[in-house]
Amino acid sequence: MPKLIPRLPSTNSHLPFGDMQNSPFYGIDIITVKQFDREQLTYIFEVAHEMYEMVSRVGSFDLLKGKILANLFYQPSTRTSSSFTSAMERLGGSVIPINNVSYSSVTKGESLPDTIRTLEAFADVIVLRHPEVGSSALAAKYARKPIINAGDGVGEHPTQALLDLFTIHEELGRVDGITVTMMGDLKYGRTVHSLARLLSLYNVKLNYVAPENLCLPDEIKAEIGTKGIPQDCFADLTPVLPETDVLYVTRVQKEYFEDPAQHESLKGSYVITTETMRQAKSKMVLMHPFPRVWEIDMAVDADPRAAYFRQMEYGLYIRMALLAMVLGKA
Ligand code: CP
């Protein structure tokens, strides 16, 4: 009698047993935005568009019927976790939700590799958020199923950057030729680390507005510099606001400060108000990965340039596209 569960292959191919398909994304891990080129991004956006059309027309459909996603979150999440759940369920699949590892065997000391090898016995793809930089890459070394990085500490958040770029593309109709200003916590903000890298594939100008101690890390600036992208740092938004096509605001993350007083001292310094919007271009796109705390006044929400709630919805279509692609169905 054949074995019910084959032994591990000698290489970590991530290909599900007996299910070979031709898609270049089939079975791959999504760990960093560095793995994408412009052609692939265009393809992902085309698939995301198709997902939008299908959701608009029929709500959900059975593309991934029978497939299971494990949502493994070691850090809190509202958008990433729930949009991956929604994406999988709209595609007809189902989800194992581990959104609070304190109720899992992690509290008994289980290692990340063991948790991953456990979940892949039950699921076809694993979405992982973890506080340590490199955790998704580590998980991918042990996994035979695709790992999707949903944020690895202060490292990267590649699916957020894909949805951010898709938002810019949808809102402005182009990415080349624009000026993007990133404001807030650029040092610890994994969303900006990923987005700045993705934008460097295009003909853009990047402005960074942050307190001196929270500016984009030098190694990321150097990496982007090698692509010939003009970059400038500013302590204040005023001089760059009039030229800005996309203003990407981020939260100053309390959880990364050892000294609460240092966090408090920054509070209120970088806030977008209706007055700020009066100084901005009439077609500027205002984005934020959320959650927001005090960085954008709620009065700004009524401004049509405030794209952050649409940005979240674009994330659904991007994540549907990614799940379908890594599972060989797009
Ligand atoms: N943008 C984002 O990652 O939000 P969550 O932390 O709520 O997932």
From TrEMBL:
Residues 176-325 form the Aspartate/ornithine carbamoyltransferase Asp/Orn-binding domain. Belongs to the aspartate/ornithine carbamoyltransferase superfamily. ATCase family. GO terms for molecular function: amino acid binding; aspartate carbamoyltransferase activity. SUPFAM superfamilies: Aspartate/ornithine carbamoyltransferase (SSF53671). The lineage of its organism: Bacteria, Bacillati, Chloroflexota, Anaerolineae, Anaerolineales. Pathway: Pyrimidine metabolism; UMP biosynthesis via de novo pathway; (S)-dihydroorotate from bicarbonate: step 2/3. The keyword Glycoprotein does not apply. The gene is pyrB. This is Aspartate carbamoyltransferase. Heterododecamer (2C3:3R2) of six catalytic PyrB chains organized as two trimers (C3), and six regulatory PyrI chains organized as three dimers (R2). Its EC number is 2.1.3.2. Residues 29-170 form the Aspartate/ornithine carbamoyltransferase carbamoyl-P binding domain. Catalyzes the condensation of carbamoyl phosphate and aspartate to form carbamoyl aspartate and inorganic phosphate, the committed step in the de novo pyrimidine nucleotide biosynthesis pathway. L-aspartate binds at K108, R190, R251. It catalyses: carbamoyl phosphate + L-aspartate = N-carbamoyl-L-aspartate + phosphate + H(+). Coiled coil: none annotated. Carbamoyl phosphate binds at R79, T80, R129, H157, Q160, P291.
